[in-house]
Structures are given as C-alpha cells and as structure tokens.
Amino acid sequence: MKMMQSDSIIALDVSKDRLDGLDTPTGELFQGENTDAGYAVLRRRCRRRSVQVVLEARA
User: Fold this and answer.
1) Is residue 49 a part of any domain in this protein?
2) 5, 18, 38, 40: least CB-packed within 10 angstroms?
3) Rounded to 10 degrees, what is the CA torsion of 53, 5, 26, 35?
4) Which residue range forms the structural domain that includes residue 18?
5) What is the torsion angle, in degrees rounded to the nearest 10, for the CA atoms of residue 24, residue 21, residue 53 and residue 15?
6) Of 52, 1, 58, residue with least CA distance to 23
7) In terms of pLDDT, which residue wins out, 25 or 29?
8) Kind and range of the H or E element at 17?
9) Quick check: 1 pLDDT over 70?
10) What residues contact 24, with CB distance under 8 A and at least 6 apart?
11) Rounded to two decimals, what is the model's pTM?
12) Which strand ranges, in their side-by-side order, compose the sheet holding 51-55?
C-alpha cells in the first residue's frame, strides 16, 4: 500500500466527550467536542492543507 504524501500530521485522542489534538509542525494543541459540530471543525482544519490524521488506539 502506498502512503499519501502530506504537509503535516494531526494526532488525535478521541474520548467519549472530547477530541484532543496536536497539529504538527506548528505544535498547536487544540480541543473540540466529540460531536458532529466538533468533527466539522476538525474537517475545516484539515482542508487548509494536505493532512494525515493519526488516531490513538485504545482498548
């Protein structure tokens, strides 16, 4: 499988109520609600440039 080239990575920790993120390479930390509105904000952030989103895996 070929990996897509991206400008940056967004590391995302998803909990029941909240999204905690780190936007690289700026190092900006951000939070949002784990709701449709919160995901809409995340999508707008990702549309600004080519981004790879990495989710934290939890059991």
Assistant:
1) yes
2) 5
3) -20
4) 9-55
5) 160
6) 52
7) 29
8) none
9) no
10) 8, 9, 10, 11
11) 0.75
12) 28-33, 18-23, 8-14, 51-55
